[in-house]
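Task: fold both queries, return tokens.
Query 1:
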Amino acid sequence: MKYVIVGAGALGSILGGNLIRAGADVTMLARGARATYLRDNGITLRGLVEDTIPCRVETDPAALGGADVVIVTVKTYQTADAVAPLRHMRVGGVFSVANGVLKNRQLAEVFGEDAVLGSIAMVSGELLGDGAVKYTVNQLLSVGALPSGPSAAAQAIADSLNEAGVNAAVSETIQTDEWSKYVNWSGMMALSVLTRLETYKFLSEPAAVRVAAKIMRETAALARALEIPLSNDPPVACGDIVDGSQDDAVAFLQKIGRSFEKNAPQHRVSALQDVERGQHLEIHETLGHTIAEAERLGVPVPTIETCYGLIGAVDRWVSN
């Protein structure tokens, strides 16, 4: 399969590097200093994979004629600008591993709805100062037809990723999975930015966890208003947070915090990494999108609105 990977940060480098190591035809679409680094040094992975992989780099979107699969790995606020110059491409399938639920609409505007697959990525790493990528989590990358159902294209992509060592699966309920992950991510992202703490630390504070639970439950209420079912199956389970009482949700999240303390005490949500690097935050296309949809449907989301204002201030003053 012929892949084009849009973006060469942590996730783009992890996916591209593993696919290339497995013999796939991969072009990395990158720009600026990152493109120069990759041309000169290749993709350097550390952690779960220790390797340096030569790669083909393209900086001009117009030079890309087509691909079986386009994987978009840039942040939500970069997605529209990143894919707009690719409208000319012949594409078999395209999906984004970005956070949030707006991404599929952004891709459909360029590539058409029929080409867009849903996706969630429980794969993570961190772009280090020397240009290498620290590859830390290889839990699951799911792809599937939107809003649901079987997909031969998704199966071929999952098979290819698995052959490359990236744990992947096809989901026949990908819209449900995307929203279920988004419910969890919204609360975790907000608390990580507002507390500046490692994940287990803010999940050990009952008052902070209650704020996260409120955000998650408000996001779930929006999903219900949109008639999108949520999942209580791993790895995107959110039923224990949104179906019972708020106290039950707090207890469940504190249990997750204890697991992080035991198994990954240094874990930091990617949004906190962005704050520490002085980068823009995924706020307007995520929580901002939630607020706009909630207003349209008449769903109250007061906790999200409060946190959105606070995180927006962090974004304006911290980002370069």
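Query 1 returned. Query 2:
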Amino acid sequence: MTKITKIFVFFAVLLALAAPAIAGPTTPVRYTVSTVNAEMVLDSAVLRQQVEFLCSPETGGRATGTEGAQRVALWLEEQFRDLKLEALSGTFLHGFRTPSGAFGRNVMGYIRGSSAPEKYIVVMAHFDNLGTLNGTFYPGADSNASGVAALLGLARMFAEMRDCGKTYGHSLLFVALDAKEQAMAGADALRSFLGKNGMQASLVVNLDQLGSALAPINKNRPDYLLMLCENAGSERLALERANTEPDLGLDLAFDYYGSKDFTNLFYRRISEQRVFLEQGIPAVMFTSGITLNNNKSYDTPETLDYPLLHSRIRLIFHFLHRML
């Protein structure tokens, strides 16, 4: 290498090192947090796997106080840990006694809000079922393994939004309730826990039976969803707006198949949001309705429509995104 060549190489290296300074400061890359980030983590195959586990013989039908129900509670705790939800009072598992004396466990985890963390939107679904009675196994796929899978799907979607940098004003509390089949003792325990710890529920969202396409609102529209709510609330408008998201447009109803009496029954009397409505706390219930499979031994995972369950969870996610 000649002396002239060495000098040329020397100056070329200097210019390369100086290039960033000459070009000026680097413009920071802007990253837009979108709900698309969350939708990408929701998977119909995973929903089915979760329902199949919940309905497997090893869970025994998930009756409160049984070994199978304990196994499910521990599994739910593991799911919440994996999503890096925060525990309340240092634990995800919150025990209580039912009126019959059985020991139940609610599983709770939350994502902290930014501006009003003491206010919570509570999303809940009961995981217990009838169990095994007189030798007959009740798997409870639609009632309510489907609601639990929806709960986990929503928790995963909002955890993804958190990890992408999205913050919401209110906290978001996810609760897998035990003991619906024992006088809604899990919902009562949750209400008591919130009150004792000074936690204000601004809205309660109950997920109960969300996986079936067997009871459509209109016979030609199997892609449907029912939301029971107060007529004067803002929740209906939020759901209708959420339903305009791409690839949604589900057939919606805001009563129970047009019946005032059945709407009152399911909204105010026999479903767990009742516990909160009685305290003046706004609450809604999402459901795909009662079918002939409910509380039968043939309420099995293969009877559910997982792509439709996927769409319903997406819609509820967009609803919650607006309510937060």
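Both queries returned. Flag for query 2: Residues 206 and 285 are 5 Å apart (CA to CA).
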